Amino acid sequence: MARSYEPHDIEVKWQSVWDAEGLYKVSEDPARPKKYVLEMFPYPSGDIHMGHVRNYSIGDVIARYWTMRGTNVLHPIGWDSFGLPAENAAIKSDSHPATWTYANIEKQAASFRRMGFSYDWDRRLASSDEEYYRWGQWIFIKFWERGLVERKSSPVNWCPSCMTVLANEQVIGDGVCWRCKSVVQKRELEQWYFKITEYAQELLDDLDELPGWPERVKAMQANWIGRSEGAEVDFKLCDASGEPTDETITVFTTRPDTLFGCSFFLLAPEHPLVARLVEGTEYAPSVNEVVAGAAKETAIDRSSTDKEKNGAFIGRCVVNPVNGEKVPVWVADYVLMEYGTGAVMAVPCGDQRDFEFARKYGLPIPPVVVPADDPLYEQLKDQTERVVTDVDWDVAHADEGIMVQSGQFTGTPTGKHGEGVTKVIAWLEERGQGHASINFRLRDWLISRQRYWGNPIPAIHCPSCGLVPVPEADLPVVLPADVDVTKGETLADHPEFYETTCPACGGAARRETDTMDTFTCSSWYYLRYCDARNDAAIWDKDKADYWMPVDQYIGGIEHAILHLLYSRFFTKVFRDMDLVDFAEPFTNLLTQGMVKLDGATMSKSRGNVVAPEDMIARYGADALRAYILFMAPPDKDLEWSQDGLDGMYRFLGRVWRYVTEVAEEPVSDSPATDAEPAKVLRRERHRVVGKVEDDIERFQFNTALSAMMELLNAATDYRRTVPEENRDVSLEREVATTLVLLLAPYVPHMAEELWREVLGVQTSVHRAEWPVWDPMAAAADEVEMAVQVNGKVRARLVVDAGASEDTVRELALALPKVAEHTEGLTVRKVLVVPRKLVSIVAN
RNA sequence: GCCCGGGUGGCGGAACAGGCAGACGCGUCGGUCUCAAAAACCGAUGAUGGAAACAUCGUGCGGGUUCGAUUCCCGCCCCGGGCACCA
Q1: Which residues of A12-36 are buried (b: 16+ CB within 10 A; e: fewer)?
Q2: Nucleotide nearest residue A335, measured CA to C1'
Q3: How far is it, in rounded angstroms, from Cα A142 to Cα A144?
Q4: What is the pLDDT of residues A745-789, one digit of tens each?
Q5: How much is the ipTM here?
Q6: Does residue A309 reach within 7 angstroms of strand B, measured from its CB?
Q7: A784 with A797: CB under 8 angstroms?
Q8: What percent of chain A shows pLDDT beyond 90?
Q9: A339: Cβ under 7 Å from strand B?
Q10: pLDDT > 70 fraction of chain A, expressed in percent and rounded
Q11: What tens digit of pLDDT does each residue of A654-682 get?
Q12: Any residues with CB less than 8 A from the CB of A142 and at least 6 apart, and which?
């Protein structure tokens, strides 16, 4: 009597055997094609959750599949282990961030082993390890040498709960902190930046080089980078009496063709000119009120579109370069200091915001671009001078139209990318009053954090030399262990850390006490995996060039901008440093959906968590792995349901029974006498291998599994319907073997047990070759075709797969059902779709 | 407002290049086995009408192209996500 399927014993057993055999260790092998399969490394937050199970199961199937296809697969794991939650947890439990972090890493590592993931553990890393973060500091120094590091003062995002500044990318939704969801505040602070904006154009352009990325991620990045084409235009500032001075204010505009419609000029409340120009004038009180009002607003208020716009005249004018007209300068709270130059030429006829502002303050709205079907067009079509200064429109006209009241340009068709734009820019350039320009929404990456548990920024503030990098030879700047975060301490509270000497002049100096954003750690870990134990260099270039780029990257959509944009930036800088030979780190990206319960993301605070450990305890890791992949395609959100897991467990039990039964059957010499059912089963075997192959490569793990279920159904049908003495046992063996091989990436432990212990193979199923299939053998020799009359299926026809169209047509027309439905009608047309259907048109 | 997804049985989902809608699984119902139950196995299962054969309807809505549309085109509705006073 064969054993029944007992997942727990076999899973734990094989995990230790694989470890002992070093089954998943890999090294460079130029003779074989390589693949680098990588899942985003986890933050060691505690226990693993279903999202982890899903993410890492997807990667594991892909890694195991390609290994079986003869590919040299790198599949590493590590931890993104610096970061704020460790400090918060330490404060709560009165311990040290390191204690909490490393305990969690061990816990997660144990869970990953228990899930049977095929990692090369020798490459394991943690970003909080000194041997890792020292290279992060080295990167900082190298970026500095390349002019990509800057310390500057600007309005930054401050999270009052995390007590640190944040990068723009880390402020999400309605102006909240990505990690704790608190509303962030704006503060003017001096901080460290990586100049990611220097790569803005390339980061945008190279999205086109990533066909293996989801459109939506690329769209989000393009959106974030926010490239706008337009022009910079210089306006001369007038003095208090209205006479033009030599001082100019530059604006960025995407619509230089509307310059003739500029009837006022706007400055952001934070613009330095505002305070300077109104100081001591009669305009100061009203202007200051607007400035103060804007400063008080939270990020949420400020980004609200339907908020009423406020402004005040500052008492000065600027000269419109196209017509010499003097237009009043206002301060307006809807003008952003962070975008463009913080100054805007207002064209109320063509911009909805300016339109509203003009209406509120009674400013003129001269129409300069009108659609041909607007009554104004007839009136103004040859009008070069301004005669109309207001419109009866309800909204601004921002679309295409024809230029009017626009001097020599009158009559030119124009729009966002219209002829008018090009002409006006050329004219401005000729006269030295402006030039074509491109503006990005992307800001430089603020990387300094006022927190302890991070990578210390290797910089020294010297009173005489200024900012000095820590010399390469002095790296790493070790994060001291004796900082007590439970007392709210940071590095800035530890003189023994920050008191130092200047490496340049030797005088007393102060070490930087900010640490780096954790996203700097995760921007290059995938490269370190290629050569994780190297202590002489960040990585060996040959090794990196062998394994990289990552062929398949798998992770959550929440990093669509953050981690994925930063990593692309790092890679481009590494390329410029000649550390790598490629410009994009991740060739193919799969963003997996969330695992939900009752329609909501599982979370401890919500109390709707299904613990993977509980599922493993009941069903084993194999059933859990297979089930989470079977539930839905990987990129879709899925709703957790317990019942389906029972079904998967049942399926594995049926596979187990089938394989063990077949394995016990003696292989007799008696020839199979029941040819047709055997033929069907053999055909099914070939078809399913092909289908599973195709499905895995398209990440359709759910349909791959259902194909395996179909094969098992066919196999057990055969066993049930064909009398024992007529069964082709060698065929059944082949089917059983095939099933085990197909299942190996999904249920590695059960497959291994069946392979080695039941089928008696000496070597691991995970080193076995993927089964071969023959498309000819997978094709049926008879096919059932549907016969339609006027678009409705009226009959079915079983014909030889190779039957000619004429034969099929004749057979179809001869069917009684067809005669019935064409009675009294004339057959006009008969279409034959080979092997699919016959369509008869009659009327 | 702009940009991406998505809408198919009771449920998760399938249909890859315009060709039999609902594979596979869950659930439900019926059956076999059993003293009984569980497990396991077998069968049925989109809706409506019909004893059945069968017929009609059916992939968010309305049009269109086509012999034929879940699939392509046009116009909408709803849900999810991203961006948004970006000049």
Answers
A1: bebbeebeeeebbebebeeeeebbb
A2: B85
A3: 5
A4: 999 999 999 999 999 999 999 999 999 999 988 888 888 888 888
A5: 0.95
A6: yes
A7: yes
A8: 71
A9: yes
A10: 98
A11: 999 999 999 988 877 666 666 888 999 99
A12: A577
Q: Using the CA of A416, which nucleotide's C1' is the nearest one?
A: B87
Q: Take residue A811 and report the two structure tokens written for it.
A: 């057979």
- What value does the mean pLDDT of chain A take? 92
Cα gap A65→A68, rounded to integer Å: 5
Cβ of A335 near strand B (under 7 Å)? The reply is yes
| Residue A836 CB in 7 A reach of strand B | yes
Whole-number distance in Å between A57 CA and B8 C1': 28
User: What domains, with CATH codes, occur in chain A?
Assistant: 137-195+444-519 (3.40.50.620), 227-440 (3.90.740.10), 641-778 (1.10.730.10), 782-842 (3.10.20.590)
The string of pLDDT tens digits covering residues A574-627 is 999 999 999 999 999 999 988 888 777 777 777 778 899 999 999 999 999 999
DSSP letter string, A65-92: HHHHTT-EEE---EE---SHHHHHHHHH
In A49-206, DSSP assigns E strands to: 72-74, 78-79, 125-126, 149-159, 164-166, 171-172, 176-177, 185-194
**pLDDT for position A1:** 44
Q: Work out whether the CA dihedral A183, A184, A186, A188 comes out positive or negative.
A: positive
Cβ-proximal residues to A649 (8 Å cutoff; 6+ apart), any chain: A619, A620, A623, A627
* CB-based contact A355:A362 (threshold 8 Å): no
Cα separation of A98 and A324, whole Å? Answer: 66
Question: A306: pLDDT confidence band, cut at 50, 70 and 90?
Answer: low
A149: pLDDT confidence band, cut at 50, 70 and 90? Answer: very high
Distance (Å, whole) CA A108 – CA A546? 29
Distance CA A38, CA A77 (A): 8
Residue A304: which pLDDT band, with cuts at 50, 70 and 90?
A: low
How many other CB atoms are found less than 10 A from the CB of residue A530?
A: 23
The C-alpha atoms of residue A78 and residue A822 are separated, in whole angstroms, by 69
Six-digit token string for A342? 């913080």
User: Which of chain A's residues 279-308 bind strand B, using a 7 Å CB cutoff?
Assistant: 302-305, 307
**Are the CB atoms for A319 and A244 separated by under 8 Å?**
yes
Q: Which nucleotide is nearest to A557 (CA to C1')?
A: B81
Closest to A25 in 3D by CA, of A76, A69, A79:
A76
Other CB atoms within 10 Å distance of the CB of residue A95: 15
* C1'-nearest nucleotide to the CA of A254: B87
Task: Report the distance from CA of residue A711 to the C1' of nucleotide B9 in Å, as an integer.
Answer: 25
Tell me the torsion sign for CA atoms A775, A778, A782, A788.
negative
Q: Which of A82, A89, A58, A53 is CA-nearest to residue A521?
A: A82
State the nucleotide closest to A712 in CA–C1' terms: B24
Instruction: Decide the pairing of beta strands A171-172 and A176-177.
Output: antiparallel
Q: Is the CB of A74 under 7 A from strand B?
A: no
DSSP A282: T
- Rounded Cα–Cα distance for residues A212 and A214 (Å): 7
Q: Which nucleotide is nearest to A836 (CA to C1')?
A: B19
Residue nearest to nucleotide B85 (CA to C1'): A334
Separation of CA A661 and C1' B41 in angstroms?
Answer: 16
